[in-house]
Amino acid sequence: MVRVKYCNLRWSLPIALFSLMALWLISSPVQFVAAQSPRSKDDRPNIVIIYSDDHAQHAVGAYGSRMNQTPAIDRLARDGMRFNNSFVANAICGPARATLLTGLHSHANGMTANNTRFRDDLPTFAKGLQAAGYQTAMIGKWHIPTKPNGFDYWAIKRGGYYNSEFETPDGKETSKGHITDVITERSVDWMRDTAQQNRPFLVWISHSAVHRTWAPAGRHLDRYADRDIPPPNNLHDDYQGRNPGASTAQMRVSRDLFPAYDLKLPVTGDQILDRAAARQLDQMTDEQRERWDAAFVPRNDAFAEAGLAGRQRTEWNYQRYIKNYLRCVDGIDESVATVRGFLEKNSLADNTIVIYSSDQGFFLGDHGWYDKRWMYEESFRTPLLIYWPGVTTPQSTSDHLVQNIDIAPTLLEMAGAEPVADMQGESLAPLLQGEKPSDWRNALYYHYQMVEPPGRTSHLVAKHYGIRTARHKLIYFYEHDFWELYDLERDPGEMNNLYPGLASSDLVKQLKNELADLRVQYKDTSGKPW
Ligand code: CA
Fold this sequence. Notes:
Blueprint: H1 2-36, E1 46-52, H2 71-79, E2 81-83, E3 86-87, H3 93-102, H4 106-109, H5 125-131, E4 135-140, E5 153-158, E6 165-168, E7 171-174, H6 179-194, E8 201-206, H7 244-248, H8 272-282, H9 286-306, H10 310-345, E9 352-358, H11 377-380, E10 384-387, E11 396-398, E12 402-403, H12 407-414, H13 429-432, E13 444-448, E14 464-468, E15 472-477, E16 482-487, H14 499-502, H15 506-521
Parallel strand pairs: 1-8, 1-9, 2-11, 3-12, 4-5, 4-8
Antiparallel strand pairs: 2-10, 5-6, 6-7, 9-10, 13-14, 14-15, 15-16
The structure holds calcium ion.
Calcium ion binds next to loops.
């Protein structure tokens, strides 16, 4: 026994020493890594949302624009997935942002219009990602009455296109430059600081371009100067067969654009928007103003000499409006290039999801209009491109019907955060992973119900809700008890209201049943039932 014990003791020391050495050899590389990076690496992807304002799908190259090119946005489409059927729930600025945050239709988040209250108590993607350990920021246009909640950092743009102020948790800050460049620079600065830390980040780069008043950066003012943009076929729409609100809405290119505020003609009056236009010019530096005047003064002189009227004047208005709009789009496209360039140069691109979208689409002379609000395709649709490195197949597309209610659940799933059962949208993650679920929604619900005071600066679009399937759209203008039905395959421009001829058809009965089901599903009791 003693011998055996002795033998054990005799061998146990070298064995123990050998074991300790082996353990040191095995563990030393780990210790070396740990010494450099005290916390374990967090591999969750960063998320960058580049969100523009009023950027219509039909002014995006990747969506087949006939008017312009958007190389950086198109590159995002080539790297990731383009959603061909991407829509909003309510085509107006504040409500679109409230829906993006909450994954809820407007009636459910309180923000049915720009001038209503937002239910700040609701879960949002920002709160969810913050709780999951993400560093979060919102920089740019906010347009919600409460202060940003769920963001570690925020800076709300206040003011126009040039030299805007920002409201931050630390107070007001001034800026110098064109707003798209300033929002981009602030966002890149935040990412540069934040990427140093060992936690993933989410930044919502919320551009205020390409919203009215379409004031491009100096370097873009001569773009499109040497050619005309082809106007849409229905620039001179007469609204035959459409709801009574179509002809009374104040958003006509021919009539409702303000001379100085929108069309960059000389300020001559003293109405509220003339004063706003004058103020915007006053906010420019001398250098910015010189560049501006060099572009517009000669063109305005030529316009004054031409003495245009009627259709010719409408077409001039259209060219002036659309060119400035597209110049603002050029600024947004450069922002996408800058942000992606930053990610690539800083070794962040391989683990950063990049999303490009807009708060809704816009009428680019379609139906004779500018602005949005209607459930018609031009404003109901919105661009949606998502590049998820290692997940999305390059140049992939999805035809599924998706809506801005889907973004919040998608972001939560991308970040591995807790899902929120009450969100009305569906996560797009399966679509991004290449799945083609057969039980995906086959119809979208939409409700616009903004009340505006009567007056020249209001748009006065009739309230409406409706349903859109892959092929048909049925809209109820409940203030007028008026229905519109479109066959989108045969009539993509929605010029021919089929409802009067098909009011008692099986198609209309079925669509009305589905619309009623959607109102129940989304618990929307606002707006008059039929
Ligand atoms: Ca908008």
